[in-house]
Design goal:
Two copies of one chain form a homodimer. With 328 residues, the first copy, chain A, is an alpha/beta fold. Chain A is built from eleven helices and 14 strands. Chains A, B: Its EC number is 1.4.1.16.
Chain lengths: 328, 328
Amino acid sequence: MTIRVGIMGYGNLGRGVECALKQNPDMELTAVFTRRDPGSVKILTEGVNVYPAKDAKDLADQVDVLILCGGSATDLPEQTPEYAKYFNVVDSFDTHAKIPEHFAAVDKAAREAGNTAVISAGWDPGMFSLNRLYGSAVLPDGKDYTFWGRGVSQGHSDAIRRIAGVKDARQYTIPVESALEAIRSGETPELTTRQKHTRECFVVAGEGADKAAIEKEIVTMPNYFADYDTTVHFISQEEMERDHRSLPHGGFVIRSGKTGWDLEHNHVIEYSLKLDSNPEFTSSVIVACARAAYRMKQEGMTGCKTILDLPPAYLSSKSGEELRKELL
Amino acid sequence: MTIRVGIMGYGNLGRGVECALKQNPDMELTAVFTRRDPGSVKILTEGVNVYPAKDAKDLADQVDVLILCGGSATDLPEQTPEYAKYFNVVDSFDTHAKIPEHFAAVDKAAREAGNTAVISAGWDPGMFSLNRLYGSAVLPDGKDYTFWGRGVSQGHSDAIRRIAGVKDARQYTIPVESALEAIRSGETPELTTRQKHTRECFVVAGEGADKAAIEKEIVTMPNYFADYDTTVHFISQEEMERDHRSLPHGGFVIRSGKTGWDLEHNHVIEYSLKLDSNPEFTSSVIVACARAAYRMKQEGMTGCKTILDLPPAYLSSKSGEELRKELL
């Protein structure tokens, strides 16, 4: 039986989910929901309708899993608990500090309705969390490090765009190679923010803008840039379009730990991602989690889950038998 | 409540399990079982007894999980189904081709007894299998590659030791760096055995042995060496003791895959291990799986499982709440 999937919200992430569904023959897109005028939203899949978000629950019997593609700041804290009343849901809620609160709200709604919800699917939180978990479970005497990049941080890019005189901006987060190398060699240094990442900014200044003032405002911006070594490059709008259109990202989770009666042996576990498209990779993880949500619901495992709770085999389209034979 | 663990078989792996238990305060070693004379087996943990293997089932009420540390060739195919009748068990069965058969035998015994069994815990099968699974579930249009090394292959070392005139030998499996680099850059080449790994052998020849004949016998040995580029170094027994006593190992699982409506974006996921002690790392994975086996039994999830079936959170000593707060 094909798993019927709905998408709520059709931005970069919604489009990524649509593309990922095309790659998974055991799943199909059945509906897209939007808060915009449905007539104004052009999707890629032929024969699938776009509906107003407010009508979603009327289609509950046609959707096995609803994927929520809104933002973590204001959309998901409302949407996920609300739609968990009517659907099995998956979201990519990524405000780490607010996960416990979000989990509680979604868990309550999903349990009451007998639905399965998976929150915080993606790569961080998501695949990186899994690797932090496995690393610490296998090597309890150890330390883990997460590095992000090289990749575009949309929050930091937006922060630059809000500065007076800035027309456009793109910010790259870059891990410090020497820190990575030290950890790979088995060292377990305490690293400051500045020692882990640098930030590189590409900025299009408006006509007659004071570039020195813009640069100073960027590098001294609290929280976003002040604690980092930040470099600023002014470029033309043409260069921005030509060289900085895509949304690459990635990063590293490294666990270094010791074993042996006297902790005499060292081990390094490294997981890394090199992604051409951050939203499409995130969507691909979400879609695999939607498969797991569907299966858990079938087996009566309801309530809110995260990727840490999902039996790995449930993410795959293959049977347990195939997995044991082919890839165990 | 502390999880009470028994060890069946006290070689490199059994000793590794003993060391790993010391690192996990929620677990404790309660008994070691051996087929040797128990009086001849000295273990590291004070206050724990060594019993004859044949008496194990009499202690079933004192052991929550029995870890089977025998070999895959002849011990585990008999021991795991047998002891699954009396205990929750974990083994590290690693003959990939025979996993389906072993799974079926263990599943039958564990189900009938209402016990939980985890087979094939370790790193390959084990952590590498998990990464092959997650990689293929997230990037279905892709290809994965597993490389082993640099590390000691005990089977290959043994094969060399059986050659006439050889006193001692140690064989290292080494991944071909240029193949790794090509895959990391997003290529998905078809690689022959020879293009993936080389083999390096350190050999102590006996007094007056024909070194040229030994070298020829090694490099032309079918299955073990003939399909590889193999180098042979003759060294003294002193050099063997000094430079080749430890059992390092490791390797890489790399998934390269595409996303996007027209598969226009590429992604590379890489998981790697660099291990000072192969048996101790394997033991550390086994012990985390023993924790999961105990929990699954508590929840009535009985029968045979592999690491692909274990909810990741069950491997950790932390609660779901702590995991969501601290590392999700």
